[in-house]
Specification:
This protein is of the alpha/beta class and about 160 residues long. The protein has 2 domains: about 100 residues, no CATH class; about 45 residues, no CATH class. It has 5 helices and 7 strands. The radius of gyration is 18 Å and the shape is globular. The relative contact order is 0.16. This is Abhydrolase domain-containing protein 10, mitochondrial.
């Protein structure tokens, strides 16, 4: 089994031994924790035009955050422009055929997870809303729910693969 992490939207992909018809390492399921699809681009585009132009000239955007030890993220303008090419919410539907669980917790609005679910071609999508969770999912109940979700996905995949 392998796991892959993708930031900034914090998706967790699980690979399990797949049938011989699939290449090794094929992603078989996806769990999105604190789903913040397109958040960087959306937040940048909401800045006043003069601030956007200043960021373009400086080449760096300082995004304040209580989650960074320096109190802010320093994001290269080139990264923002690259991120615009990979936005999910305003693109063609995402053709994923494996089980997906976009996860929402207190910090990110639930509508983002619902928008991600709507963009997926797969009908095997569950959205779990945790209204009072911390984005780091560090409380025992949060971890337990995540483990139950992973167990459920493994069960679904075992049935599908076998």
């Amino acid at each position: 089994m392998c796991k892959k992490f993708h930031k900034p939207s914090e998706f967790l992909a699980f690979c399990i031994p797949s049938p011989h018809s699939l290449p090794p390492g094929t992603v078989m399921a996806l769990i999105g924790v604190a789903t913040a699809a397109d958040a960087l681009v959306t937040k940048f585009n909401r800045l006043p035009t003069e601030v956007q132009k200043e960021v373009e000239l400086k080449g760096v955007w300082t995004w304040p955050s209580k989650y960074h030890e320096e109190g802010a993220y320093h994001i290269q303008y080139s990264f923002i422009k690259e991120a615009e090419q990979h936005c999910l919410l305003h693109s063609h539907p995402c053709d994923l055929s494996y089980p997906i669980a976009p996860w929402r917790e207190g910090r990110h609005p639930g509508h983002t997870s619902m928008q991600v679910a709507d963009r997926l071609v797969s009908t095997n999508v569950d959205v779990i809303l945790q209204k009072h969770s911390d984005r780091r999912m560090k409380e025992k109940a949060d971890v337990q729910l995540l483990v139950y979700t992973i167990d459920d996905l493994i069960d679904k995949l075992s049935t599908t693969v076998n």
